[in-house]
Amino acid sequence: MSGPVVDRRAALRAGVGVVAAAALGGVLVGDASRQSTGPSGVLRLATGEPTAFYAAFGRLLAAEIEGAYPELSCRIRTTAGSVTNLELLRDGHVDLALVLTDTARAAQDTTLFPRPVPLRAIGRLYETYLQFAVRADSSVRSVSGLAGHTVSLGAVGSGAALLGERLLRAAGLTPGTDVPVRHLRLAAAADAVRAGTVEGLLVAGGVPLPTLTDLDKDPGLRFLPLTDLLPRRGDGEGLAAAGLEEVTFPESAYRTAGGVATVGVSNLLVCRPDLDINVAEAITRLLVLRASELVPGSAVGAQFLDVRSLIGTGSVALHAGAVRAYRALHG
Question: What is this structure's pTM?
Answer without folding.
Answer: 0.83
